[in-house]
Amino acid sequence: MKIATWNVNSIRIRVDAAVAWLKEAQPDVVALQELKCTDDQFPKEPFEALGYNCAVHGQKTYNGVAILSKRPMEDVTPRLPGGDGDDHARYIEAIVPGEKGVVRIASIYAPNGNPIGTDKFTYKLGWLERLRARAAAILKLEEPAALMGDYNVIPTPDDVYDPKAWLKDALFQPESRSALRRIEALGYTDTIRACHAEPHLYTFWDYQAGAWQKDHGIRIDHIMLSPQAADHLKSSGIDKHVRGREKPSDHVPVWCELEI
DNA sequence: ATGCCGACAGGATGTCGA
């Protein structure tokens, strides 16, 4: 089973780009983030025409997550538990059948958290703690699971072109990095780290200041596998070339192959 | 230099992203 995650930065404006990538990459399951549309506005037709079922948790203008799956999904559950009154559409979970078993899939869009020292940063850390709690609960199920999406956290200095330039950014704060490490420490595997020894692999390049041309990127989109999924990890990659196309998202797809 | 770019809502320009 090939699974992938992609922050599309508006699904409506990215339909052609998404269809082109799906045709070439042929993933069985895709977690999408930053739909920037309501459930009603989500363009299901072009994806259904490619054979995908769509589970959408949208919101007007901001956020929004979805899971596309060739096989029908079960137990589709939007919203991250906890966070009383939190109405941001940043999480959706579903069960997807594979050839040999099922995989629990989560599409994650963690808060940006800038600027630091504000309620936004507090919200980010609280949200990541809620995610850790959910990740711990999923581990107890002892089943293959992939928690994938835009974590908005740069894990280490090796995951950014110039660590100094990000020292005051919410994505690279010690508290943010620690929150991600706490999830990994539960027993989750970062697929790109597991499959690639070389540093400076990126998933996001800002639209501004020629970041793409200068390869000024950061790695913030991650696939985290439960032990039962990591046992079946075959390969993982980043479809970097997608960033060089017409009207690109500022993020690119991250994928992995599971023998499930 | 805290903007550079891009999407959205709305109908000008402010908000948000990372």
Which short descriptors sum up this protein?
260 residues, alpha+beta, Deoxyribonuclease I, Chain A, 27% strand, globular, DNA-binding
Helix and strand string, N-terminal first? EHEHEEEEEHEHEHEEEHEE
Count of discrete domains: 1
Low-confidence stretches: none
Could you tell me how far the N terminus lies from the C terminus, measured between alpha carbons in angstroms? 6 Å
Categorize the overall geometry. Answer: globular
Helix content: 10-25%
What does it look like?
By secondary structure, this protein is α+β, with helices and mostly antiparallel strands. It has one domain: 4-Layer Sandwich (Deoxyribonuclease I, Chain A), CATH 3.60.10.10. The protein contains six helices and 14 strands. Strands 3-4-2-1-14-13 form a six-stranded mixed sheet. It has a six-stranded mixed sheet with strand order 5-6-7-8-12-9. A two-stranded antiparallel ribbon has the order 10-11. Helix 3 (119-140) links the parallel strand 7 and strand 8 (145-150). Helix 3 (119-140) runs parallel beside helix 4 (174-185). The longest helix has 22 residues, at 119-140. The protein is globular, with a radius of gyration of 17 Å. It starts with a strand and ends with a strand. The mean pLDDT is 97. The protein binds one DNA strand of 18 nucleotides through residues 9-10, 12-13, 34, 36, 60-62, 112-114, 152, 166, 169-171, 204, 206-211, 218, 220, 247, 250.
